[in-house]
Design brief:
There is one protein chain. A hairpin with a 2-residue loop joins strand 5 and strand 6. The longest helix is centred in the last third of the chain and has 20 residues. The strands form four sheets. A five-stranded antiparallel β-sheet has the order 4-5-6-8-7. A three-stranded antiparallel β-sheet has the order 1-2-3. Strands 9-13-10 form a three-stranded mixed β-sheet, with helices on one face. The chain is built from eight helices and 13 strands. With 289 residues, it is an alpha+beta fold. It is 38% helix and 22% strand. It folds into two domains: 103 residues, Phosphorylase Kinase, domain 1 (2-Layer Sandwich), CATH 3.30.200; 158 residues, Aminoglycoside phosphotransferase (APH), C-terminal lobe (Aminoglycoside 3'-phosphotransferase, Chain: A, domain 2), CATH 3.90.1200. The termini are far apart.
């Protein structure tokens, strides 16, 4: 029997038809045609990971991106409904598929930006420019906030739940981190943070992938962009960015993806947060000094 993880399963009892692909439930061509008022001539996968999938749809009315996501892991549909700006795509349609939601977006033509030749300072300037634009969006939905002590404590609770029991001493280090680094960072100016800002999400003048925006200290946009670009930073701000990424993986592990790799990433970024802050946790061992 073929592995159900690797095949499409058509749920014939449902109307309209649904396509099951791993954790996701996708709309079928008939439903998409009705929404767009045009037949689907071609449907090609572009990008996929367990919580979301992007497909390219060709129709007589143009080319669209179909983005299907696990609803509990994204606020992108609500975000696009609330935020309007020239740097944002305007959805053609949206819908529900069981525990998933989908967006039909105009296809963003053009090549992604390339930051490989930029210095860290140049990347920071580009990110600051975009962050200034984001602050004009107004009151929009966010997936998570980092504006209060409770927000830091919520992430620590997620990390406690996923940390290997034999490494429990490291949790004391994270408590020290919260007092010395996390809470002081919350005193900085806060605003809307994309949280996954990297060159490949900047295409044709548009900013893509608004699945998990945050209300958080504004410096987080720069530090997360550098970290996701493989650039090394140090100090409290870079440490805070690593902690936030640890929090994402820890929550994903607890709620959506109970996979060892996801837990491993939560632990790795938490260790990195401590190392960047210089407070005693090293890769492969933990210290509470």
């Amino acid at each position: 029997m073929p592995d159900a993880q690797n095949i499409f399963i058509i749920e014939k009892e449902a109307r309209p038809l649904r396509i099951r692909d791993g954790l996701l439930t996708l709309p079928d061509d008939g439903e998409l045609s009705r929404l767009l008022g045009a037949e689907i001539a071609d449907r090609t996968p572009v990008h996929a990971w367990p919580l979301s999938k992007v497909e390219r749809l060709s129709t007589e009315k143009g080319v669209f991106a179909l983005k299907t996501q696990l609803a509990a892991a994204s606020v992108e549909r609500a975000f696009y409904a609330a935020a309007k700006h020239p740097v944002l795509l305007s959805p053609a349609a949206a819908g529900d598929c069981g525990d998933c939601g989908f967006l039909l977006l105009p296809w963003a033509d053009g090549e992604p930006e390339v930051w490989d030749s930029l210095t860290d300072g140049e990347v920071r300037r580009r990110v600051r420019e975009l962050s200034g634009v984001f602050q004009t969006f107004g009151d929009v939905p966010v997936w998570r906030s980092y504006t209060s002590e409770d927000d830091i404590r919520d992430t620590l609770a997620d990390l406690r739940a996923v940390w290997p029991a034999e490494k429990s001493g490291a949790l004391s280090t994270l408590e020290v981190w919260a007092e010395r680094v996390g809470l002081p960072c919350l005193r900085r100016d806060t605003g809307l943070v994309h949280g996954d800002l990297k060159a490949e999400n900047l295409v044709g003048g548009f900013v893509l992938d608004w699945q998990r925006p945050m209300r958080a200290p504004l410096f987080l946009e720069e530090e997360t962009a550098l970290l996701l670009s493989g650039r090394d930073g140090a100090g409290a701000e870079a440490s805070f960015a690593a902690f936030v990424l640890a929090g994402w993986f820890a929550r994903a592990y607890r709620r959506f993806l109970p996979w060892p790799f996801v837990r491993g990433e939560a632990v790795r970024y938490a260790r990195l947060a401590a190392v960047k802050a210089g407070i005693g946790m090293q890769y492969g061992k933990e210290s509470t000094e």
